[in-house]
Amino acid sequence: MKDQFYQYIQDLQDTITHKLEEVDGEAKFKQDFWKRPEGGGGRTRVIENGNVFEKGGVNISAVHGALPKTMQQYFGVDDADFFACGLSLVLHPKNPMVPTVHANWRYFEMYNKEGTIVDQWFGGGQDLTPYYLFEEDGKHFHQICKTACDKHHTDFYSNYKKKCDEYFWNAHRNEERGLGGLFFDYCKKTDEMSMQDWYNFVTEVGDSFLSAYVPIVEKRKNSTYTKEQRDWQEIRRGRYVEFNLVHDKGTLFGLKTNGRIESILMSLPPHVQWVYDHHPEVGSEEEKLLKVLANPIDWVS
Amino acid sequence: MKDQFYQYIQDLQDTITHKLEEVDGEAKFKQDFWKRPEGGGGRTRVIENGNVFEKGGVNISAVHGALPKTMQQYFGVDDADFFACGLSLVLHPKNPMVPTVHANWRYFEMYNKEGTIVDQWFGGGQDLTPYYLFEEDGKHFHQICKTACDKHHTDFYSNYKKKCDEYFWNAHRNEERGLGGLFFDYCKKTDEMSMQDWYNFVTEVGDSFLSAYVPIVEKRKNSTYTKEQRDWQEIRRGRYVEFNLVHDKGTLFGLKTNGRIESILMSLPPHVQWVYDHHPEVGSEEEKLLKVLANPIDWVS
Predict the structure, then answer these.
(1) Which residues have CB under 8 Å from A110's CB, separation 6+?
(2) ipTM score of complex
(3) Which of A142, A234, B196, B273 has its CA at a distance of 20 to 30 angstroms from the CA of residue A267?
(4) Given B246, B256, B265, which is nearest A274 (Cβ)?
């Protein structure tokens, strides 16, 4: 399973970066290989100062070895070996009418001292963070998520949409990071779902990413915008930074387990503003977005 | 003691904001009062888009009531009542040749159910975060810190300089947030120091703040700078954000105990950049700063 999934994310990284370069039309991804001293490493691909993408990363990694102490505590286990691989992406477009997107698909194995697998699971998801609310974009993104889920289980979309809203709740701001999407974790073998079934589900979601996001980018990337709208985007990006550095388990985990900092923090936006006590005008487009972030809605039924 | 110190920080807030407005010559502090539902509140003063100060806050607060659960765990105590007051300030100048500064002076009392004080202590400090290294500025700032300390105890400067370097270590970046200064906490009654002695020490440091910082601002505020130097400042401000959101106990504490978000996060800089895997040129002024941040030095002997 680990070879099968690692091959999948390598291919998916190629597919996604090729397509995004085509959409951007100008910038190319820069590739960095890195090694983890304790075992494994990654292939980081970052795009900057593009025509469409101001900054973004589409990174894969596969790491293994003794489970670090902090992760033992986190999982509530004793000494164990582990293998983990995944693809993580974040894209920050230049144009404030184009939403930021995040996605991640990952697989984890834990072994006893004899090297036998004692636990294994998939996790992942994808979510959209716009700066201006176009309801049709939210509907499109969620509809693609739902279609991918529905092929595997009738409960998956509603369950994982809900988990996504819970996970990306920026608690100290009392608002969602964005419009949500899917979030799932600890997807383990059950009577209903074999690990191969989970593989089929997770890769179905991975395969859906470009069709969930690219049509929105194509529709919005040539929109005109004002300096005020760009300022609003940079202020909202501040909330993205706050979520990632204060609440995001993946980011904190990476920072506290000696991950490759530049690959982890590629998720942070290129230009960001913090303005004291900023509130958009009543009835404005900016306020319309905040209302949806304060009370997540159902995008598809 | 609590009335005496709260009166002190009210007066100090006035003194500092008046002086900074004079130095800025353009912008004025905007004042907000806020109330804590569980008891107490604060007076926040924020300056934005000034001639010298791009953003900054000089805030006081005095809060009291039942010690929140998270603070009980933090202090390792059971149910108790508390009183805490303090002044916190952060200033982000526009010109990259002028350093950012942070300072904080605070007092804490804990009570048993009969309302008797069972514990009380002072804490605080002040530290400098430049974007370009002017050694004479570092020496000046630390000399003022040392002079204030030496009036009270010959060990204070070296002890609190060291604690400052330890506290502001941005662990995931393997570097200091800045050039340090002073950091002290849990300053409690001992055979040598009464609470009044500690009050005299902490207020000595508070009184020294303007003479530690303002001469540096005056010397640098009219320096010319390039767009590249401004970019460097914004990238370094990113590290400031990372420290405050990932490591700073005060910030995380505020966020997790339902403090007033806008007063806590006034510390975040106005314009910030994150550039993937940025490294200054070998031998550049930017690299010179990084070397000192990687290995804090003694500024005064």
Answers:
(1) A67, A75, A77, A80, A81, A82, A117, A118, A119, A120
(2) 0.93
(3) A142
(4) B265
